[in-house]
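User: Can you predict the 3D structure of HAT C-terminal dimerisation domain-containing protein? Sequence below.
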Amino acid sequence: MLLEPQVLDKASKCLLHRYPADLSENFPCEMLHLTKIFKSTFGKEYELPTFILLNESYKKQLQLIFSEVCIAIQVFCILPVTVAEAERSISKLALIKNCRHSTVEQEQLSHLAILSIKCELAREIDFREIIHDFAKKKARKIKL
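Assistant: Sure. Here are the predicted structure tokens for HAT C-terminal dimerisation domain-containing protein:
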């Protein structure tokens, strides 16, 4: 969907105001220029997923021309992941604290939180081999 130039300019300036350390004053102009050449450059209408737009920009070596746009897309692509990961970590930690309350130390609580957050990876671990190695190293042999 093509935005009107006034709407695009306003949205670009809003984003520029939100991220002044990452974007420069050229950002609204770059956005307007990109919309004008989008179809001829990417061969598609305005329905291109954001991360694909970023990858295609780098493949076509457009990051030098649209550096501010590439930075804005990178910020857009990583922000939701960062927030979701933090929220998941906090909710898992709260769940573990409720289950174990004050019966575990802080270090054990941290390890349990990591295992809970990375549960897919933890399910792939073969614990029999780990237990066997641990028992072999810690075995005490007493001669009678």
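The radius of gyration is 25 Å. The helical segments are 5-18, 27-42, 50-59, 67-100, 106-117, 119-123, 127-138.
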